[in-house]
Amino acid sequence: MDEERVNIAPPELIPMGDLLAYHAAKDAQRPALTFNDVTLRYGELDARANRRARQLASLGVAEADVVTLSAPNGFEFYETVFAIWKLGASPNIVSSKLPAAELHAIVELAKPKLIVGEPSAQIAGIAYLPTGSDPSDFSADPLPSKIAPRWKIMTSGGSTGRPKLIVDGRPGAYDPTTVAMNRELGATTLQPGPLYHNAPFVFSFPTLFTGGHVIEMGRFDPLRALELIERYKVTWVNMVPTMMSRIWKLPPEQRDAFDLSSLKTVWHMASVCPPWLKQAWIDWLGPDRIFEMYGGTEVMGMTVITGREWLEHKGSVGRVMPGSQMRILDEQGVECAPGEIGGIFFLPDGGRNSTYQYIGAKAGSSGEWETYGDLGYVDEDGWLYLADRRTDMIVSGGANIFPAEVEAALDQHPDVRSSIVIGLPDPDLGQRTYAIVQVDDEARERTDADALRAFLSERLSKYKIPRAFEFTSEYLRDDAGKARRSQLREQRMTGAS
Length: 497
What we know:
CATH superfamily of the domain at 14-176: ANL, N-terminal domain
Shape: globular
Low-confidence stretches: 1-10
Helix content: 25-40%
Structural class: alpha/beta
Largest sheet: 9 strands, mixed
Strand order of the largest sheet: 3-2-12-11-13-14-15-16-17
Number of strands: 28
Radius of gyration: 23 Å
CATH topology of the domain at 14-176: Rossmann fold
């Protein structure tokens, strides 16, 4: 095809690869992306993506291909994703720290034309481009317009140990005047999470689609997050409860030393937010700036709740949003009564599998209804309350114990940075509750298992208090708030045996 602009999208939609040029044509000097205190303008970022696209094309990438990207957060990540879209290809995003076996399993499913990543990401028989490769010898001129048939292919499987692909059903085109999630056109977004997770990816790139400014952190640090919000007058941010907890546990004189008046919207999602922590943030920033969403990469359905609504329905994650229906079903597929815990199931208006496709797995389902795997209940008015994932629930002595509830109580302790609660086999009880607790070395001298048991005895029923505690100074969750429970459980079962 000759290198000329081809309009192959409806008038209101623009190919994602063309969106940087669209905004650069209005103002090439408009800030697009800031990382490590360096800012790229829209014209610069588009030119870099054009060069990168030609570099990828020289290695065989063409329309409808898949490119597996295994790179850390940074300028190269963003320009490579836009380069992939410019070629009409689909980015398959993976962690740059994946073990070799897991990367091989993902690549076997994705069948990419090219892998971009660190030397450890090379796989025999597949074209490879190392991160850090200089594309400056390639032209920065515009490329023909192309639309990827699938705008992203994310990966999952950390909780089950079985990698799978989640293929988004939407093509690579976007209306640059469309905003959502209480974000205005031209928003300045703080991006604190790992881009290989879905939420950071789908919130950072639409900021650029709509002419906004992304402040990329690279890696989350609570004090720096507040500094960046003040310095760049950030208006919008998405966090996970782990980040919120790290910020809240800063000394008050540090936390309150920054001007956060520009910040209009704080979303949180990805894991259960303990009620005490959510209340603290509402008290700090006000209820009208706090929003929560429950959903998943598959977008089969979601719920949303505002801070003001939460004050009236404490502990809820909201009501189902337009675009899908929600039901709470028992193990026989019968709808649960209000207040009765069951599996949370959704059905999109377009029907089952209308929003995504799995490669390498099947969703849990009941007829046409599908589930993310979580348990919960609704009240009489349809407000949803989460219990836990069915696979994580601990059954000890016939009693159901939800790890999230125990973790929320543990995390209230001033010396606890984070916690993970798992169930280990027990010949008498079936399972015993085991807590892995992160504390600083300095705090370890004053906080032991007996201290935590005493603390929990004021907050939990006796049968929910862990039978054993393991202490560590290492982070238990990543910056997306995710933890590999199955891996943690397996390691401890292997050690015990």
